[in-house]
Amino acid sequence: MTDRPDTPENDTQWRTAGDRIQTLLDSCAAAGTAAHERAQQLVREVVGLYGAGLERIMQSLDDPGLAERLATDDLVASLLLVHGLHPHDVHRRVADALQRVRPYLGSHGGDVDLLEVTDTVVRLAFTGSCKSCPSSAVTLELAVQDAIRAAAPEICSIELVTNTKPGAVIAAESLLARVHSNGHDATSWHPVPELDVLAPGEVGGFLVDGTALLACRVGDQTFAYRDHCPMCDDTLAGAALSDALLRCPRCGTGFDVVRAGAGANGAHLDPLPLLRRDGVLSVALPCAVTEAMGASA
What we know:
Elements: H1 17-28, H2 33-60, H3 64-71, H4 74-82, H5 90-107, E1 110-117, E2 121-128, H6 134-151, E3 157-161, H7 172-175, H8 177-181, E4 187-191, E5 203-208, E6 211-218, E7 221-226, E8 240-242, E9 245-247, E10 254-256, E11 271-272, E12 274-277, E13 280-286, H9 287-296
Parallel strand pairs: 2-3
Antiparallel strand pairs: 1-2, 4-13, 5-6, 6-7, 7-11, 8-9, 9-10, 12-13
């Protein structure tokens, strides 16, 4: 995990501002086509007005340090991107995004090489030691895609290629074909501020959008997994953590939480992407899984 600039606690509400605006626009459609078009025009006028103001502010800055701080603030950066005012080019933004998630990838035994960035396409090669763990492949792919799309929304395609370097064992097919065939094509991020209260060595159970998960703190890093033991097919509630080893209280199997939940006989816990967004630890849940749980509730 890497430290991000401090932001006000209520900054997280702006993550969903676009969705709320779209919902309001859609509701205007019920009043007829004319009302809907007027609402859309109103939004365009407001966006244009604030965009013009932001442009003048950026043009007036003569302090490179201030421009840099603005560029690394999630909320401000997102507005600058909307109006094409971000001071960093797409290559710099993609590279910075990967650098922020690299410690997280390393905690799962993986890494990523940035091969090429064009105006709309990013080409990557993954390396690491998680080929035998499909859930880790899902975790890495989700974390990287989220980071890139947030930093460079103009990117239309993220292409993964097989890395031929010695020791490169995460192939593109293990990250894309396996991920998307399992229905993890889209994710929804959920802030879980309670995770920040975990003390080193502590394990906690949480229910996030209907999904039971287990979170544990090792040193200054927090890891999240689905609350399910693959060996005894039971809950991990009551599990104890010793160093980085999480032991199931029922079957006694130990899992290395720092290394993607690796256990005995090739068993793995199911890790969930956990990143700090707007200063708050947030977990990613595949939408397909979320919807299925909601339907079965």
